[in-house]
Amino acid sequence: MRYLALCCSFLLLLEVSCSPTEEPSQETTATSIPNRDSIRTQVVKNWDDVLKSWYPRSLDTTHGGYLANWTYDWEMAPQQNKMIVTQARHLWTTSKVLKDEPQNPLYQQATELGFRFLKDKMWDAKQGGFYWLVNREGQPIFNGEGKYKRIYGQAFGVYALAAYAQVNNSEEVLNFAKEAFLWLEDNAHDKENKGYYSVVFQDGTPLTQDKQIRQNLPVSWMYKEQNAGIHLMEAFTELYRVWPDSLVRDRLVEILHLVRDTMVNERGHLTLFFTEDWQPISYADSSQSAREANYGIDHVSFGHDIETAFLMLDASEVLGNFEYDETLKVAKQLVDHTLRTGFDPARSGIYQRGYYLNLPQDSTVSIIDSEKDWWSQAEGLNTLLIFTNLFPEDERYPRRFSRLWKYTRTYMIDHGHGGWYNLGLDVTPDSRISPKGQAWKGNYHNGRTLMALKKNL
Q1: Which pLDDT belongs to residue 361?
Q2: 71: closest CA among 422, 457, 446?
């Protein structure tokens, strides 16, 4: 075993030493991606491997829903609490697979298990809304974050139900998706300032700033957040596909405007948190120690930026190319800013976090977290392929796409055990023994990307 481990370490070092430090030498013409056919073959194989890694392994046929927690070599972890985000993302992924393979009994079973668990266990039958966390059997956990209902989780519930409604024609599924959307409308929508509160109590009452302070809760909970906003936009986009209701359209237009015109700032990246009346939260004018203490709510999130570019375009398109040119302009700003500031120039890969000081002479981003998480690489691949097709004369997009795929295949995909590592091995080699699955890591980001690449390459 020690000999095998040493061999694996040697191979990894060999890969690192041979990684390119410059752009590929192949001449790139309009719409061309270096090694396009080879990449597509690799994508198809990896998507098949990802699905086999997760299903049927993650199906909880005893209690319903999905088992989320897995070791690096796919042994089931003893603790199996179930969070709404994870459960909903699995239902979304399996619904998309079922859409392509409607007669596949595995994904018929997988989607039904997920839907029933969301409806019978994760939905609060008395007060409405999805619980944030339940145990494996489906009993709500009201400790910690479980005391509240986070709108980020509600968004993914709507997203999953809308996807399932596209492959299951029963009124029950669509009606549940409508109910989840209308619960958000009645409880979390800010009718005065627009957008949505980030956290509500179990009965749906918004957690406003004064209540947050009195209860000594995380400071970010009193703010409106970019992350909930972009995923509400994503959820309403999916819902509008199956239920083109006027109120859904109004809320989708509203959240698209907020993301595009308020959350994306003049530098071309997303501001992460805002007051209730949409004033940005920034610590750039504070001391270095204050900035560092608040990096969690004030930084450049490269993965979210490049993901949001895709989500805005998707929203515009489902609305009939609503304000498409303006939306594309801002989406391109997000992508180009990420290309300039958030990519590793040596081996490629998207960094986690950067930071600007609020000084006139400071026009560069300092990288404050050089780790490269799995979901950012996935979202980068998806968006870069889209921009390759949108801007065929701009050679940056196909070249960066090709390099990012090579990076992902080398440092992010586990070719031995299956699945993707949590963090790129070039910066975080210990990630090879990190869990393959946990509450925040399933297969939604890389699944969506692999499906898109398989279709569009």
Answers
A1: 57
A2: 422
Exposure string of 125-134, with b = 16+ CB inside 10 Å and e = fewer, is eeebbbbbbb
- Residue 176 corresponds to which tokens in the numbers above? 């549940």
Beta strands of 107-226 (E only): which ranges? 133-134, 149-150, 199-200, 224-225
- Site of tokens 């959307």: 181
CATH number at residue 222: 1.50.10.10
- Give backbone dihedrals phi and psi of 413, rounded to 5 degrees, phi first: -95, 130
Token output for 454 = 């398989």
Residue 34 lies in a domain: no
With H, G, I as helix, E, B as strand and everything else as coil, classify residue 300: strand
92-122 per-position pLDDT tens digit? 999 999 999 999 999 999 999 999 999 999 9
**Domain carrying residue 125:** 80-283
- Asked whether residue 30 is domain-assigned, the answer is no
Model pLDDT for residues 39-98, shown as the tens digit of each residue: 999 999 999 999 999 999 999 999 999 999 999 999 999 999 999 999 999 999 999 999
Cα 309 to Cα 89, 92, 111, 230, 256, distances in angstroms: 20, 20, 29, 10, 11
Is 120 inside a domain boundary? yes
Instruction: Look at the chain and report how many structural domains it folds into.
Output: 1
Residue 130 placed within a domain: yes
CB atoms within 10 A of CB 248: 23
DSSP-derived 3-state class of residue 95? helix
Query: Would you state the pLDDT for residue 214?
Result: 56
**Is this structure's pTM higher than 0.85?**
yes
Residues facing residue 198 across a β-bridge: none
Give per-residue pLDDT as tens, 389-404. 999 999 999 999 999 9
